[in-house]
Amino acid sequence: MSTRSTAVVTGALAACGGLVAGYSALAVAELTAAAVRPEAGPVTAVGGAVIDRTPGAVKDWAIRSFGTDDKLVLQLGILALLALFALATGALAARHRRTACVGVALFGAVGAQAALSRPDSVGVTDAVPSLCGGLAGAGVLYALTTLLTRPAPPAAPAPEDQGAPRTPARAQRESGGKATLRRWGSGLVRRDPVTGRLPRRAFVLAAAGTAAVASGLGHLARRVNATTVAEATASREAVRLPPPDSPAPALPRGVDLRLPELTPYTTGTEDFYRVDTALRVPYLDAGRWRLRLHGEGVRSPLVLDFQDLLRRPLVERDITMTCVSNEVGGPYVGSARWLGVRLKELLEEAGVRPPSRGGRADQLVARSVDGMTIGTPVETVMDGRDALLAVGMNGRPLPFDHGFPVRMLVPGLYGYVSACKWIEELELTTFDAFDAYWVKRDWAAEAPVKTQSRIDTPRPFARPTAGRVTVAGVAWAQHKGIARVEVRVDDGPWQGARLAPEGPVDTWRQWSWSWRAAPGQHTLHVRATDRTGRTQTPKRTRTVPDGASGHHSVVVTVT
Questions:
Q1: Distance CA 120, CA 428 (A)
Q2: What are phi and psi of 457, to 5 degrees?
Q3: How much is the average pLDDT of 429-454?
Q4: Would you place residue 194 in the very low, low, confident or very high pLDDT band (cuts 50, 70, 90)?
Q5: Largest Cα–Cα distance in the chain?
Q6: Are 217 and 241 in contact, with CB atoms under 8 Å apart?
């Protein structure tokens, strides 16, 4: 093999060694994180730091493009970049071993800095997983590339050979008359008798063995994390929700039209949308959960545990929630039956007054265990609406994805200013004194839900048969209610749709309209009017800074 070919093969093997080193670094880091704090793992920490620094427009693009899989796509992207970095440093190590190893260690330092920069960081211990992973990766890379690039020192020549030309026979005598044997794992690898180098087979065996060990460490990390998840799951399964002191009002008959392809009035828990920044869903033990309430204007600070909440008067309400990232006609809206404690009563017990009654605080900041901060107007929380610290959803304890053991929700406000999940702290402050997480990223500080409507059937680009076609969908104006829904075909006149019986004011409303469809391509439009008399604006706006607006439309071809 030529010198050039040998260099190419060596570089390729060294790149593979870099990949093994990167894999080992992740395994060590994740195992260390399992012992320190799972959220401090490098992928979670770096991914969280990326989300923290992502502009609102990019966040919206990710949600539009990938939906609720946006976090999976981000994690896969981070892993792909780590793999490319590992391949590059491995290839570099073939010529500059120490420089490449230092680069790997510094990359671990980047992960450590990302962990320390997260809002939920608990201190310097969060840096430990990434630092351990970086050092382990550097060590593995150094060891593997040494096998490829460093020859063994030659044996001292026999006296009779001093000054004589070096021949294969002499080389064999210098190596003791036979190839040196070196153990690696359970096999024997022969060193080249002339060059003194270990053959590439030794590198392959070493890399495979290292990858196997790393896989074992990764499996152990998953087992440790699974134990934490199992404990949290057991605590959730042990929860027995008391019957509500104030049950949800009975829903009117026919509130759900039950039409094909029409969104159900009550969204199943498993179908309820999830939009948040948590790359790793927090699995909290209800027995260890605590909530602290303090801040401006609080005369009697409170610290509550989960049982304290369950012993308080519980209210059950049907409430529709909407994400501010919901585009016109989008899917990030859902209605469920929630069980919880009224926030107003809790705040009053702590001595809090709304600004309209002389209160010093106008913002209620909710903090999550994952570092999220959500700011809500105190006046809105205490104006009599069913603002809740929720413990149940659709008759069961909250799922982990939706905030178990306790989450906050305030009807009539978009989730980013009202719906803190995995909540652990409530602080009374002012909007002038503190900007919550999304406000720092150019979203509005206050964001009431905009009146919206959506066509569920027929679907976009459907091909219904000419004749009577049922057009149906949902409309929402939480805490205001829907008074009227109208449909228009192409540029024709607006025509009133039939509304389903009205449920609670904080829920959406179904509607339907019978269309005599003529053959050809048509565009269907919908708009809603709420009970304040406000009709949806036709002007299209994006979601930033306070929610999308405009009429939803679908194009169909009637055959």
A1: 19
A2: -145, 135
A3: 96
A4: very low
A5: 110
A6: no
Name the pLDDT band for 532 (thresholds 50, 70, 90).
very high
For residue 68 the two structure tokens come to 């609720």
For the segment 64-86, what is each residue's pLDDT rounded down to a tens digit?
778 767 878 888 888 898 999 99
d(CA 213, CA 188): 20
The Cα–Cα gap between 192 and 227 comes to 49
Length of the chain: 559
pLDDT over 60 at 218, yes or no: yes
Q: Which parts of 399-496 are beta strand (E)?
A: 407-409, 423-429, 452-457, 467-476, 482-489, 495-496
- Would you list the DSSP string of 213-227? HHHHHHHHHHHHHHH
From 482, 491, 462, select the one nearest 536 (Cα to Cα). Answer: 482
Give the residue among 242, 383, 381, 396 at the shortest CA–CA distance from 309. Answer: 242
User: Is residue 179 over pLDDT 50?
Assistant: no
* pLDDT tens by residue, 348-383: 999 999 999 999 999 999 999 999 999 999 999 999
CB 399: neighbour CB atoms within 10 A? 16
Cβ-contact 430, 379 below 8 angstroms = no
> Nearest-CA neighbor of 108 among 217, 36, 22?
22
CA-based torsion, 147, 153, 155, 161: positive or negative: positive
For residue 203, count CB atoms less than 10 angstroms from its CB and return exposed for 0-12, middle for 13-18, buried for 19 or more.
buried
The bridge status of strand 302-305 relative to strand 290-295 is: antiparallel
Mean of the pLDDT values across residues 268-273?
Answer: 96
454 and 525 in contact (C-beta within 8 Å)?
no
CA distance 400 to 282: 7
CA dihedral sign, ordered 80, 83, 87, 89 = positive
Q: How many whole angstroms separate alpha carbon 499 and alpha carbon 144?
A: 71
Q: Please check whether residue 398 is in contact with residue 405, taking contact to mean a CB–CB distance below 8 angstroms.
A: yes
Cα 256 to chain centroid distance, Å, stands at: 32
**Bridging pattern class, strands 363-368 and 373-377:** antiparallel
Mean predicted confidence (pLDDT) in 436-450: 94
Distance CA 381, CA 176 (A): 86
**Tokens encoding 74:** 């981000």
pLDDT at 11: 85
Tokens of 359: 């209160």
- Got the DSSP string for 324-379? TT--TT-S-EEEEEEEEEEHHHHHHHTT---GGGT-S--EEEEEETTS-EEEEEHH
DSSP 121: -
Confidence band for 165, pLDDT divided at 50, 70 and 90? low
The DSSP letter of residue 110 is H
